[in-house]
Amino acid sequence: MATSTWTNAALLTELEPVVAQNLDRHLSVAKEWMPHEFVPWADGTNFERLGGKQWSPGDSQVSDVAKTALIVNLLTEDNLPSYHHEIASLFSRDGSWGTWVHRWTAEEGRHAMAIRDYLLTTRAVDPEELERARMTHMGNGYASSHPDEVLHNLAYVTFQELATRVSHRNTGRITGEPICDQLMAKIANDENLHMVFYRNLIKSALEIAPDQTLRAIVDVVQAFAMPGADLPGFQRKSIEMAIAGVYDLRQHHDDVVMPVLRFWKVFEMTGLGPEGQKAQEELVATMGGIDTQAARFEDKKAMLAERMKR
């Protein structure tokens, strides 16, 4: 029975070899790609200040819901400085942890760059509204709900990276635009590799501190929210995106949370202490609740779609 509590410092030290191993793995499989190659620069024109024309809704060739999804995804990526601060402060900038933090930040940095270049070049969205939204969102920053907990943050980013992959991939598909679809697929692949890295760390943490790690996983699953959840009008935007198939509770349950939990084999874990056993029982109940909510949303999807048109 494992009931001892590990400190953050002890966990960081114990997991350092696992970080080094997975960093080497990541670098061996991550393929270089160039953001500028996924932007149709020849389609671009100057805006009004430089002798061109002011943006108008007729300039956009994507649907309103695809536009919403692209903006939400971009603004979420924009907060990278805050994300970097959070993980660098917690994981440190030294050793393998530090190397990973900077590598992750470098890879994530090209996502917002590429999406914004695509949107502005193709005039897919109002550039002034986009910039004001960026200023507001980044001005609010981002803070982890468990800023001093290594295990909670590792569990959170595992689910969050996979959720972002699903959202980016589906956003590309609903645009109906081949170049945008290819770009979002590249970004989604980055997110998937990041998820695998964090997923492997939690797998090792479950062997080191099973009760403590399982408790962290359950806490994260129960309170999970995407980093962009504080965007103005996010609730309506998230419903629009869910109806369009970008990301909904069914996908969250079936394509994000459950596959990761199965990989960790948390439902089959034995030899847990009282805290771990309680967390395991809570997790079963929590996943059942998410499944029920997902089914209810499916039943109401048509009604909600009609309501959103009003």
Q: Would you kindly provide a written description of the structure presented here, covering whatever features stand out?
A:
It holds the Pfam family FA_desaturase_2. Homodimer. One of its GO terms (molecular function) is stearoyl-[ACP] desaturase activity. By secondary structure, the protein is mainly α. The protein has one domain: Orthogonal Bundle (Ribonucleotide Reductase, subunit A). Helix 1 crosses helix 4, helix 2 runs parallel beside helix 5 and helix 6 packs across helix 8. The chain starts with 7 loop residues before the first helix and ends with a helix. The mean pLDDT is 94.
* Second CATH tier, the architecture: Orthogonal Bundle
CATH class: Mainly Alpha
Uncertain stretches: none
Count of DSSP E strands? 0
What are the secondary-structure elements, in order, as H or E? HHHHHHHHHHH
| Shape, per Cα inertia axes | globular
CATH superfamily: Ribonucleotide Reductase, subunit A
Radius of gyration of CA atoms, rounded to a whole number: 21 Å
Summarize the structure.
One of its GO terms (biological process) is fatty acid biosynthetic process. This protein has 310 residues and is mostly helical.
Would you spell out the secondary-structure blueprint of this structure?
Elements: H1 8-29, H2 64-78, H3 80-91, H4 95-121, H5 127-140, H6 150-175, H7 178-208, H8 210-222, H9 234-243, H10 249-264, H11 274-308
Pfam families: FA_desaturase_2
Organism: Luteipulveratus mongoliensis
InterPro entries: Fatty_acid_desaturase-2, Ferritin-like_SF, RNR-like
Supply database-style keywords.
mainly alpha, 11 helices, about 300 residues, single chain
